[in-house]
Design brief:
about 45% strand; about 270 residues; 9-stranded antiparallel beta sheet; about 0% helix; mainly beta; Beta-galactosidase, Chain A, domain 5
């Protein structure tokens, strides 16, 4: 794990396992802004429940690969860590995968870049097709925002967007509300939303800005009987996932081409 602090005191922690950011504090702020489960598994081959998992080249179960793809459960190489020229806390991770991993027939390389300064955290993923043939992929930065109580949370900026509701199994609904209230289990893929959304729960507030994504995923499981085993009972109240994603349809990545997605979190309250 690497812990990096900016000149102004903003800081983050990230594991080489999955290039996985697990902690973020804004400058001058003692509050943890990311959620990590008390039952999270920090072990080989397991995904860390919480923080910002990197999903590539498959989002969720949308294909034959393991859940959320190949890169979140393997060790990455730390390329750089420290303060950038502007004083930001910065780290860069790299992963190179040969064809055949978990049955995926294509070679690719990924880099994750993390920066924290003032009230902002930016995480970017760049994927390069290092093989000889194009391939299709889906992906996400699966961000777990820490909430005081998700039942009081609202997401602003989704009005008018079409979405797939995985809870109700609807494929093409339209968001009519000015604010999405998280008062029930939510698992939605919103298409072509504005770059910037607002998330607030009365105690904390975030601006969430995405670049390079086609979709935004909003997820909280609610008080289900069968929660994931690495999530403690009641912890569903303490997070909301708001994810920059390519999830509604795959993107083709040509041989030698690169693609980048980035998400910036700004702590406003």
């Amino acid at each position: 794990m690497v812990a990096v602090t900016a000149a102004d005191g903003a800081r983050f922690e990230a594991y080489l396992h999955g290039a996985h950011v697990t902690s973020w504090h804004a400058a001058g702020d003692s509050d943890e802004r990311l959620f990590v489960s008390g039952e999270a598994r920090f072990e080989d081959g397991a995904a860390i429940r919480g923080g910002i998992p990197v999903c590539f080249p498959q989002f969720a179960d949308q294909g034959p690969l393991p859940m959320h793809g190949l890169v979140r459960t393997v060790p990455w190489t730390l390329i750089a860590a420290g303060q950038a020229a502007d004083g930001a806390a910065h780290a860069r991770f790299r992963l190179e995968e040969a064809p055949g991993h978990a049955g995926f027939a294509h070679a690719f390389a990924c880099e994750v870049d993390v920066r924290a300064l003032a009230r902002r955290l930016t995480v970017s993923l760049t994927a390069t097709n290092s093989g000889g043939a194009s391939f299709g992929f889906t992906a996400a930065l699966h961000t777990y925002l820490r909430m005081s109580d998700v039942r009081k949370a609202v997401v602003r900026g989704l009005s008018g967007a079409r979405y797939r509701d995985k809870v109700l199994r609807h494929d093409d609904d339209v968001e009519n509300a000015a604010e999405l209230c998280v008062d029930r289990p939510v698992d939605r893929v919103y298409k072509r939303v504005p770059q910037m959304l607002e998330v607030a729960d009365g105690v904390h507030a975030f601006a969430v800005t995405a670049v390079g994504s086609t979709d935004t995923v909003v997820w909280n499981p609610g008080p289900q009987q069968s929660l994931p085993p690495d999530l403690e009972a009641g912890e569903w109240r303490n997070f909301l996932c708001v994810e920059a994603a390519v999830a509604s349809a795959p993107i083709a990545l040509e041989s030698g081409a690169a693609w980048t997605i980035a998400q910036t979190l700004e702590a406003r309250l």
